[in-house]
Amino acid sequence: MADLSTQPLVMEGAGWADYGLVDSGHGRKLERYGKYRFIRPEPQAMWSPRQDDWQAHAEFVPGSDEDGGGRWQFGKDVPRDGWPLAWNEARFTAQCTPFRHLGFFPDMAPVWDWMRGRLEGCDDAATLNLFGYTGVGSLALSQCGPVTHVDASKKSVAQARENAGLSGMADRPIRWLVDDAGKFTAREVRRGKRYDGIILDPPKFGRGPDGEVWRLEDGLPPLVADCRRLLDADSRFLFLTVYAVRMSSLAIGGLLAEALADLPGTIEHGDLAVREDGPDGRLLPTAIFARWRNG
Ligand SMILES: C[S@@+](CC[C@H](N)C(=O)[O-])C[C@H]1O[C@@H](n2cnc3c(N)ncnc32)[C@H](O)[C@@H]1O
Question: Hey, how many other C-beta atoms are within 10 angstroms of the C-beta on 75?
Fold first, then answer.
């Protein structure tokens, strides 16, 4: 029976050559993406910035609505159609998107490492990446075997394929699917499929390709229950992240504990956090997670 650990963990990501959290404070953060620097809103950075003068190529200025809106203000020249970045062997395009992101989520880097650690030594592990966005996680997983990548956005899936090409991984066994995460997972259950590992990175609110409404609080319990049906006692992991929602990691840990109760292994939960560059860099939390691991 999978045990739920009550002690929260911090999964810490440090910067790497192409990404870093330079400074944070007063509700904003300064990050580097390759040779460009950006300022974005960050409500959890309530402390004071370490540096007085933030030099950036662009800043995302939020609208008055806390949940969305706003726009980029460009100070210096930034390639509007994107520029190439790397994480380990994966290559991908970074770009200023209208949703305040830059085309990939750097705080997921320790998750990509952790999943690969669970599959160490495997070259035929079947994994499922739900809400896979521009595919950096799928490229990371494809080192260990075939990947099924699902996202509702045609544009994101096209970008993910392009990133695979940039990485020289176009021939890796990755199925790139534009589909609704819930519908697809239910179909896989009916087909009797199994996976060695599943990652879910759902937004708070979203839409499937046919306008299906995704609301995290309603959609997550049945989706996690279906994910359980795609795992068995030989599977290695399930990883769930949740962000921008008022929810404790203990709550999503409890959800996994209920759904995966009849599997062996351990369920842990906590914060994903990025460490600022520099010797005494602070840890900035970005999301909560719950994860199941077996063996
Ligand atoms: C925050 S992103 C995931 C980030 C990604 N895992 C990464 O680390 O790069 C959320 C994604 O969910 C997708 N999405 C929203 N609603 C969906 C649905 N009902 N089914 C499938 N994907 C959905 C969006 O298109 C978006 O790409």
Answer: 12
Q: Which residues pair with 85 in a beta bridge?
A: 92
First and final C-alpha spacing in the chain: 12
pLDDT tens figures, 231-241: 999 999 999 99
- For residue range 209-224, what is the model confidence (pLDDT) as tens digits? 999 999 999 999 999 9
What would the two tokens of residue 239 be? 């990883």
Could you tell me the two tokens for 133? 């966005």
Nearest CA to ligand 1 atom 12: 131
Atom of ligand 1 nearest to the CA of 241: 6
- Ligand 1 centroid to Cα of residue 11, in Å, is 21
User: Which helix H or strand E contains 207, and what residues bound it?
Assistant: strand 205-207
> Closest Cα to atom 15, ligand 1: which residue?
206
pLDDT on residue 67 = 61
* CB of residue 131 inside a 6 A radius of ligand 1: yes
